[in-house]
Amino acid sequence: MKIIELVIDEKDEMSGIEAVSVVSSPAIEENFIALNKQEVQLKKIDEEKRILMGAALIPNKQIYRVNEKKEEYYIFFSENTVRKASELFLMRSNQNNATYEHKDKLEGLSVVESWIIEDEKSDKSRLYGFDLPVGTWMISMKVNNDEVWGDVKEGKVKGFSIEGYFADKYEMSLIQEKTEDEILLEAIKKIIVDAERMELRSYTDYPKAAVENAKIAVRYAEENGWGSCGTAVGKQRANQLANNEPISEETISRMAAFERHRQNSQKELGDGCGRLMWLAWGGDEGVEWAQRKLEQIRNGEAN
């Protein structure tokens, strides 16, 4: 069975953890990592204040996964990736993003404490009965949602699970070792297949308003520079939309996921990066179109 290390692609502003989900049992989905029963254990550390504590991510822990083709494999995160994920989670102001069973968005749940275990014996988590390795990302979550807290008290909510996008670093096969020629041949085949898939599944029917929004972002950047705003991916997306170029299903999925940045979209251009990058990804019209289009594609209704 394959073992795959997942990492954060620093060139991709979508890479990282978007939300924390409260779960009652393990689940396997395409775009998030769910830990198993032992790994998602959490504790009520303050009944009156409704505070939950648990591990969000454990380094070097092999996590069982199954893809759409029913292929089984394991994934893991290094200590460096766990730390980087925890930092980006807060830097991107995602602490109020919560879901239930990775499906329903929740209000009234916020991560109020986040830290990396530095010492197994003296770490705060030990005071509450946790026995987790150095490098584990721990969080405490405030629950102001009566329904969720009721499920916690009834034992229906058993832990945390993260949602996010990551990149594959490398794969190790436990079945057989492949020669360099075999690896190269597989890589070439993958490039060809991906190129064919992108050509067959590209779309240009996004709204004119999305094109105009991207053009505004590009013009602003040409006159004032991007500064510290955006990554290479965000800048590429702005030019792609501004030129009305075909975009793939994966790009549409990322546009739809950019919804999480909407809270910064109403700022003026020049006031931070929120408005500029929102426009770069198509603005209101582009993101809302992407959400509709993605649903059509997944339902087999898209042309």
Layout: helices, strands, pairs:
Blueprint: E1 2-7, E2 16-23, E3 32-33, E4 42-46, E5 51-57, E6 63-66, E7 72-76, H1 79-91, E8 98-100, E9 104-106, E10 109-116, E11 137-143, H2 146-153, E12 159-165, E13 167-173, H3 180-200, E14 202-203, H4 208-224, H5 232-242, E15 247-248, H6 249-257, H7 274-280, H8 283-298
Parallel strand pairs: 1-7, 2-8
Antiparallel strand pairs: 1-13, 2-12, 3-12, 4-5, 5-11, 6-7, 8-9, 10-11, 14-15
Helix pairs in contact: 4-5, 4-7, 4-8, 6-8
Could you write a compact summary of the structure shown?
This protein folds into two domains: 2-172, no CATH class; 203-298, no CATH class. It contains eight helices and 15 strands.
**Average pLDDT metric:** 80
The number of helical segments is 8
Main sheet: strand order? 3-12-2-8-9
Overall structural class, as computed from helix and strand content, comes to: alpha+beta
**Range of strand content:** 25-35%
| Uncertain residue ranges | 26-40, 171-177
Most strands sheet:
5 strands, mixed
Q: How many domains make up the coordinates? A: 2
- Amino-to-carboxy terminus distance: 37 Å
Task: Indicate the percent of residues in helices.
Answer: 25-40%
One letter per element, helices H and strands E, the order comes to EEEEEEEHEEEEHEEHEHHEHHH
Question: Quick one: how many beta strands?
Answer: 15
What assembly state would you assign to the polypeptide chains in this entry?
Answer: single chain
Shape: globular
Over the alpha carbons, how many angstroms does the gyration radius reach? 21 Å
